[in-house]
Amino acid sequence: MAEYDPQAIEAKWQKNWEEQRAFEADPDPDRAKYYVLEMLPYPSGTLHMGHMRNYTIGDVVARYRRMRGFNVVHPMGWDAFGLPAENAAIQRGIHPREWTLGNVVEFKKVCGRFGFSYDWRREIATCDAEYYHWNQWIFLRMLERDLAYRKKSRVNWCPKCATVLANEQVVNGCCWRHEDTPVEVREIEQWFFRITRYAEELLKDLDGLAEGWPERVVTMQRNWIGKSAGARVRFAVAELAGKTVEVFTTRIDTIYGAAAVILAPGHPLVAELLAGLPARAEAEAKLAQMKQASAKAEDLATAEKTGFATGRHAVNPFNGEKLPIWVGNFVLMEYGTGAVMAVPAHDQRDFEFCTKYKLPIPIVIQPTDGAPLSAETLKEASTEYGKLVNSGPYTGLTSEEAIRRMTADAEARGFGRGEITFRLRDWGISRQRYWGTPIPVIYCQRDGIVPVPDDQLPVRLPEKVAISGQGQSPLAGVPEFVNVKCPKCGGAARRETDTMDTFVDSSWYFLRYLDPHNSKKPFEPELARYWFPVDQYIGGIVHAILHLLYSRFLCKVLRDLGFVQASEPFTRLFTQGLVLKGGTAMSKSKGNVVGAMEMAVKYGADTGRVYTLFAAPPEKDMEWSEQSVEGCARFLKRVHRLMERHAPSVRAHAAGMGDLASASEKEKVLLRKTHQTLRRATNDFETRWHFNSAIALIMELVNEIHAQEPFGDAVRPAVLKEVLELLTLMLAPMAPHIAEELWEMLGHNGGLIQASWPQYRAEFAAEEQVEIVAQINGKVRAKIVVEVGLDEDSLAARAMGDPKVAEAIRGKQIVKKIVVPDKLVNIVVR
RNA sequence: GCCCGGGUGGCGGAAUGGCAUACGCGGGGGACUUAAAAUCCCCUGUCCUUAACGGGACGUGUGGGUUCGACUCCCACCCCGGGCACCA
């Protein structure tokens, strides 16, 4: 007997699949397509089992769908631009491309070793000019439509690196490379994508994703977009004729309760207000201090509210009341108008601020039920809707009515209007980095911002660059790159030296897979018409907002450019759990990784796959256990031995179940267990993706086959072959190599890779007898075995005939009998 | 603070409102073996009771509720994990 040898088996079948190009998929109008995709990986150094879980899940789905007859496209590629490559370059003195492509080679090797069924003809790397050419092309189309624009904005700045950092490179308010250096806020010119133009649609289309996306991801996106309906109201500055300040409020009904108008420290009006005032110098010092404060979100949220009065006043347009204008650290320039009216009685932040600075706290909303509010006893703001008081002509209205009428009146009287505001901000895509897509614009003294003409694309990244991690974009130090002629006037001009955020790369790659080598367009719309959208997307919850939102945005942009028809890129989204070791997520930096290649070498890919599927349902986090890995290895060995024992005697026979009437008892048991397993496993594959319980079921089936051994003459070869074939087919998506081997042992010439998922047969799965639970007052008192389908009365009679039941109910009054056919009898007695 | 997810044996986990703990790990015992490994078989929630076979009670974070019957549904709360966070 040959021992199960995963190394040999896996190499053999991987070669076989490659030779028959088993995973190459092309459009076929006669077959239903299925696009399954795992999130584009960043090819970092070490691949561990945390990564492999994601791809294993995707591969099981891809293989299962193929077995169900779908034309499955399952591509893979590399998110190859990014900072780690630049840092590696600095640390090791090698070019980022070299480092990245070296990792890609490793990554591909591991993917192959795990038997992932990718169509490698479609492989892309975002750092190839062949790919980023089309980033630039899309950028230019967006520029034409005013979807890309340049403006000054606040960014994270590390003084030690002397460069801008992405939000994700800010760790605890400090630079990720200088952990003791707080990030500063600076204002610089940057390129933006106008994602806010799609805010309403991005929000509305979430409704359509509720079916196929995890609820929490939909909720997170909804909150992130943060739509809020309110009004914009203009206040005149009392001391400066013609000057006004606009505030945004969702509670215009509380405007008679305003105690002040508060501006963000960065508000453009602040300087004008302070000009000419005696306390100006002092105020400006306070202002500078506020602007220096930590930009960290948690700090912002918990920092004590501070502010100062400017000495100027704003006129409440509703009642002419003069309100002091303050500057407050809690007012955000980025949201609304950068100015708020402070209504301390009905907003908690305003309450804290006004209490601290001893501003009045007038009450203008009384609750419709409960005790009325009084200024003396108010401990916190009352933010509920209610009835208006002390509000001039609006007194007595409900909040809802007041909001409607006051908004209309403000508009009629010309000092305000209703407005929808979003929390979502435009996407800053400029990075002062080398290893990314060059932004294809040129700055000309005469012509200003000039797009690089399409026929001059791609703007290639120069290879020879000094990457120091210091100062500005390294590209600025390459004169051949920077100094160009203006495409319009031919005069001397400078090329943009910033590169694009790598999230641009990953926001449309799933379309490039469909036509990866097109040199005329980003992709052929006809191909997208067949394959797109992605039917099943699989990845980590980490990308719940950024990547998934950007991809949705670019999909809509490409739709409006006429390239795709779908408005949403991912019909279904699956977010898999983390792989933990020692309680924390596997990561190289924490040193708690189990290497993917080591795993494959020690146990084989199938064991690695089966274990990651078996340890927990795929959406949950799982804790790595080496001992459980061994359990899975044992299981596969056991299956292999089972086949070695029986394949020789069945391989010459055709599989067939015959009919039940002539079946022996052992045959019935085997067929029943097999078809029950198939029924439940199919359900697990189709609906819940609970591969852990699918594997458990198959283990049970194997145990049952063991329990029925030896078979002797009681099990005919055709029946046994049927059982073993179904077992093999069920194993195929999860442990594809050993399944192919078992299939061959069973006498098949053609590969399992062409086989279909089997259909279970109800007549074989059906039990002849069932065990019925007999309960007294809901407690189990006996179990009786009866034939299936026994009617309620007979079942009740049989239960009561059981000695234990009879004993329990003797002398008691029967109140009620509950009978569930084929399940239980519950007798309620008193 | 707000929004998700979760809490079941020693561990990972399983259960359309109907036998709680399937399957696997670990542990214990046995078979095979000169021995070990590998393999195969049996046992393995807690407590009480019995010489034993067996019998009984309790048991899915806590407290209530609905129901003939609750891990599952409802209400309140506790704990753990994650996300968002001065959004006017």
Task: Describe the protein.
Helices cover 37% and strands 19% of the residues. The chain is built from 28 helices and 32 strands. With 830 residues, the chain is an alpha+beta fold. The mean pLDDT is 90. The longest helix has 25 residues, at 626-650. It is globular and about 110 Å long. Strands 8, 9, 10, 11, 12, 13 and 16 form a 7-stranded mixed sheet that branches. Strands 2-1-24-25 form a 4-stranded parallel sheet, with helices on one face. It has a 4-stranded antiparallel sheet with strand order 4-3-7-17. β5 and β6 form a beta hairpin. The protein binds one RNA strand of 88 nucleotides through α8, β9, α11, β13 and α12.
Short note summarizing the structure:
With 830 residues, the protein is α+β, with helices and mostly antiparallel strands. The protein has 28 helices and 32 strands. The mean pLDDT is 90.
